[in-house]
Specification:
Elements (H helix, E strand, L loop, with lengths): L15 H25 L5 H28 L5 H40 L6 H7 L26 H24 L3 H33 L6 H35 L8 H26 L1
Protein name: cytochrome-c oxidase
Family: Belongs to the cytochrome c oxidase subunit 3 family.
Subcellular location: Cell membrane; Membrane
Length: 293
Amino acid sequence: MAKVNQNYYVPEQSRWPIIGAIALFLLALGAGHLVNESASGQAGIGRYLMMAGVALLAFMLFGWFRHIIHESMTGLYSAQMDRSFRQGMVWFIFSEVMFFLAFFGVLFYARQLAMPWLDGAGSKVMTGQLLWPDFTAHWPLLKTPGGTTTQAMPWHGIPLVNTVILLGSSVTLLFAHTGLEAGRRTRLKGMLLMTVVLGLTFLWLQGYEYLHAYRELGLRLDSGIYGNTFFILTGFHGLHVMLGTLFLTIIWLRIMLRDHFTPQRHFAFQAAAWYWHFVDVVWLCLFVFVYLL
């Protein structure tokens, strides 16, 4: 069991932040290249830059987590440090809430403001006649001004199955948490592993959904505002599911290999659980506003 330090620990200089910054830069650069390559129909380095970014990000997370775990288990952290971690996690999740609110705001603007203007609502009678004469306000918008058409992704099928999967993963994670607090290690290990498996299943099904959208529905990033908002919202959420699954995998490995966490001291588990429940709530909002409405 880890000791509790009475002094506030100040860590030494670390290489992990700069490695993380490089990983995020590669991800952003690769995503930009991938979007341009998708629009031009030419293969390029976008996917390889993104793969490199994901690999470097995973290396950074595992390395940085290992460093923090070592500091915690050797008794370097005080009660004040524990409160700092809790506050940091709360602010991190709050920043993620604002991140997704920005994209939901884009969806709201397109559906509730831009489309009525193009259709001549209010004082914007000439807007549609000048910009898009044959425009009809109807969501999802399946036709672009250039004449490109697509099909909408239905809410049933994979989206509904993924909704059930994520809701089920919250339940299994809750059982794992209660098992930890009750000292029932077998339930903790089994339910946490099931949560990780459900997260991986969600990601696999989302990848299959994207293939179906591209190959059979003609739904792409260049399919107008509907394609843009669909892939940006679901894609960023998928990235968060991937990150949450990585968090939970590390927690499970700590429990299986090192028998970490006690009913009294398990904030790392709590932080991963907070993040996972946040990801589930975001998906419910996505399912309603992107697929259903």
